[in-house]
Write a structure and sequence with these properties.
It contains 15 helices and 13 strands. It is of the alpha/beta class. The chain folds into 4 domains: about 110 residues, GTPase HflX, N-terminal domain (Rossmann fold, 3-Layer(aba) Sandwich); about 70 residues; about 170 residues, Rossmann fold (3-Layer(aba) Sandwich); about 50 residues, no CATH class. About 5% of the residues have low confidence. GTPase that associates with the 50S ribosomal subunit and may have a role during protein synthesis or ribosome biogenesis. Its cofactor is Mg(2+). It is found in: Cytoplasm. Pfam families: GTP-bdg_M, GTP-bdg_N, HflX_C, MMR_HSR1.
Length: about 425
């Protein structure tokens, strides 16, 4: 007889800190926090509210009156877990857990939990474990500071508190070293796969966008793949890649679906998931998928641009902006968005669900990748038969003339093909 695990009763709080200049709209931030929580199985969000905070209390985050008021609500709702949509220091977490007698997770902790639950590939799992340990390590050091006061003297001689911190820190560091070694092996394997792909240099088209923008739905429609596509934040964590033949004689491309971006992504994850997003760095063309029906779509687009910038995506890589989910609008508003997109350069109003707008997009992708090819002229000696055979196998030779020393060739190829040829 199997017993279903009882769902954890959770309450989401968004601290609306008035002293923060660039704070997001409280209503939308809270809605996103609830969506984040919904991405975790076995979690039942029984309440959610935004709490105005003039200035965060260093020890408790909120004022004493608000803490008492929330405590009563949590008791009435039999809450097991409080999710705070924002950073919470280890001291604040410890004090609030003690006061409310519940477990508390801040935004970083929650996102780590989701990533841990969603990661599928070996690399994804290792990245999450390393990010979680890095996060725990920073909290561990500060969370144990109350023990350091047990020491006497000037603190040069370690007491029980310091011994405990050092032992825990060393255990985490040793585990991080082990994980990093395993990750290096996995990354090398991926590099071998990438090198194998480079021999057949299909252009890479990468889908990027804010989480839940509809990337996976679009990926499935374009490739016929069955990638998990749910109305859920972080539905995709590991890059999924498929070969796609573009219509009307267009080139074959590799389409890559990536993890959704999100505002205030924990620094531990930005660093750890750089490798997960490496396909974006290698892309010949980027498709930025936006949920144009979302009230915060402009802010989300800015967040995506900032993360791409921090990843070091080259400005030379062309970006097409896709205004997805136009099927969420009535006819009049939909027509207005289609008209607006048509007046913009490289913007397409589409619906990944209905397929509307996709033929024009595919034609533009074909043109973007065709314009990537350039003409080169050079001479090959008779002794360079291997190079000549490779050029013909790649179908890049436009014309060839033979003279007494070898071959004069005109080729049309991509930068990637030229680079491979020069390295032969």
């Amino acid at each position: 007889m199997t017993h279903e695990r009882e769902a954890t009763r959770a309450w989401a709080l968004h601290p609306d800190i008035k002293s923060e200049r660039d704070r997001r709209g409280a209503e939308f931030a809270l809605a996103e926090a609830v969506s984040l929580a919904a991405a975790l199985p076995d979690l039942d969000v029984v309440g959610a509210e935004s709490v105005r905070v003039s200035r965060p209390h260093p020890g408790m985050l909120f004022g004493s009156g608000k803490i008492d008021e929330l405590k009563a609500k949590f008791q009435d709702a039999e809450v097991d877990l409080v999710l705070v949509d924002g950073p919470v220091t280890p001291v604040q977490q410890r004090n609030l857990e003690k006061e409310w007698k519940v477990k508390l997770l801040d935004r970083t902790g929650l996102i780590l939990e989701i990533f841990s639950d969603r990661a599928r590939t070996r690399e994804g799992v290792l990245q999450v474990e390393m990010a979680a340990l890095s996060y725990q390590r920073t909290r561990l050091v500060r969370a144990w500071t109350h023990l350091e006061r047990q020491r006497g003297g000037l603190g040069f001689v370690g007491g029980p508190g310091e011994t405990q911190i050092e032992a825990d820190r060393r255990a985490i560091d040793e585990q991080l070293v082990r994980l990093r070694r395993q990750l290096d092996k996995v990354v090398k394997t991926r590099e071998l796969h990438r090198a194998a792909r480079a021999k057949v240099p299909f252009p890479i088209v990468a889908l990027v966008g804010y989480t839940n923008a509809g990337k996976s739905t679009l990926f499935n429609r374009l490739t016929g793949a069955d990638v998990m596509a749910k109305d859920m934040l972080f539905a995709t964590l590991d890059p999924t890649m498929r070969r796609v033949q573009l219509p009307d004689g267009g080139p074959e491309v590799i389409l890559s679906d990536t993890v959704g971006f999100i505002s205030d992504l924990p620094t531990e994850l930005v660093a750890s998931f750089r490798a997960t997003l490496e396909e974006v760095l290698a892309a010949n063309l980027i498709l930025h998928v936006r949920d144009i029906s979302h009230p915060e779509t402009e802010n989300q687009a800015r967040d995506v641009a900032e993360i791409m910038d921090s990843l070091g995506v080259s400005e030379d890589v062309p970006v097409l902006e896709l205004w997805n989910k136009i099927d969420n609008f009535g006819d009049e508003v939909k027509a207005a968005h289609i008209g607006r997109a048509a007046r913009e350069d490289d913007v397409f109003a589409i619906s990944a669900v209905t397929g509307e707008g996709l033929p024009d997009l595919m034609e533009r992708i074909t043109r973007a990748l065709a314009s990537e090819r350039h003409l080169s002229q050079f001479h090959l000696d008779f002794s360079e038969g291997k190079k000549r055979a490779w050029l013909f196998a790649e179908e890049v030779v436009e014309s060839e003339e033979q003279d007494e020393t070898g071959f004069n060739l005109t080729v049309r190829w991509t930068d990637r093909q030229e680079k491979r040829f020069r390295e032969m």
